[in-house]
Amino acid sequence: DAGITQSPRHKVTETGTPVTLRCHQTENHRYMYWYRQDPGHGLRLIHYSYGVKDTDKGEVSDGYSVSRSKTEDFLLTLESATSSQTSVYFCAILTTGFGNTIYFGEGSWLTVV
Amino acid sequence: QQQVKQSPQSLIVQKGGISIINCAYENTAFDYFPWYQQFPGKGPALLIAIRPDVSEKKEGRFTISFNKSAKQFSLHIMDSQPGDSATYFCAASMQNAGNMLTFGGGTRLMVKP
């Protein structure tokens, strides 16, 4: 499972409330990513990080912010959740070695009501 | 603008048959083309990947065919089994530009016994 833990795994929240999803890795990988998955859209990149305090935007970053204060943790925050942010969120890490491979976590199911 | 287009959206195959999923990409800078398999409630898992310097890669019953001039690649699943029933995603990335994966929309495969 590449040592990725996402929390919470399931959450229901109300519109307008802040929400933070956590991704924790145990293997000190430099690159970490947040994707969202919606039917018909595959997975779309929200934000990514290439080191502590080094982050950048992805394809669908509006309404989301991220932080990485430690190598092992990458946080995704929805400052004011909206119904359009109801989705499944996947964290991923990049492993290097014999080839660059991206591994995904088990996902966080978020419902905004 | 969808940079990776995947077809079909859904596919039904009889046990023992060949499943074929196609993808087309637009960005000629992509240099890594993985396929991911996803079971319900799970994160995507890397199945097989190819780089553009080869036209075909085979791992067990799974084969990627790659056509650089046409900017297309496909996944063939030989002797399809009910256990192969899952959603399959093609993706593409640039290895020297953050490795961010751009995904196709996904294909839901059902293999009938």
Please provide a written account of the structure.
The complex is a heterodimer of chains A (113) and B (113). Chain A has strands spanning 4-7, 10-13, 19-25, 32-38, 42-51, 54-57, 64-70, 73-78, 87-95, 101-104, 108-112. Chain A is mainly beta and 113 residues long. In chain A, strand 7 and strand 8 (73-78) form a beta hairpin. Chain A is globular, with a radius of gyration of 13 Å. Chain A starts with a strand and ends with a strand. In chain B, 0% of the residues lie in helices and 52% in strands. Chain B is mainly beta. The termini of chain B are far apart. In chain B, strand 6 (56-59) and strand 7 form a beta hairpin. The radius of gyration of chain B is 13 Å and the shape is globular. The chains are: A mainly beta (113), B mainly beta (113).
Mean pLDDT across the residues of chain A is 93
Unreliable segments of 5+ consecutive residues of chain A: none
Order of helices and strands of chain A: EEEEEEEEEEE
Q: Helical stretch count of chain B?
A: 0
Summarize the structure.
The complex is a heterodimer of chains A (113) and B (113). Chain A is mainly beta.
What labels describe this entry?
heterodimer; A: 113 residues; mainly beta; seven-stranded mixed beta sheet; four-stranded antiparallel beta sheet; 11 strands; 0% helix; 59% strand; globular; B: 113 residues; six-stranded mixed beta sheet; five-stranded antiparallel beta sheet; 52% strand
SSE layout and pairing:
The complex is a heterodimer of chains A (113) and B (113).
Chain A (H helix, E strand, L loop, with lengths): L3 E4 L2 E4 L5 E7 L6 E7 L3 E10 L2 E4 L6 E7 L2 E6 L8 E9 L5 E4 L3 E5 L1
Parallel strand pairs in A: 2-11
Antiparallel strand pairs in A: 1-3, 3-8, 4-5, 4-9, 5-6, 7-8, 9-10, 9-11
Chain B lengths: L3 E4 L2 E5 L4 E7 L7 E6 L6 E6 L5 E4 L2 E6 L4 E6 L8 E7 L9 E2 L3 E6 L1
Parallel strand pairs in B: 2-11
Antiparallel strand pairs in B: 1-3, 3-8, 4-5, 4-9, 6-7, 7-8, 9-10, 9-11
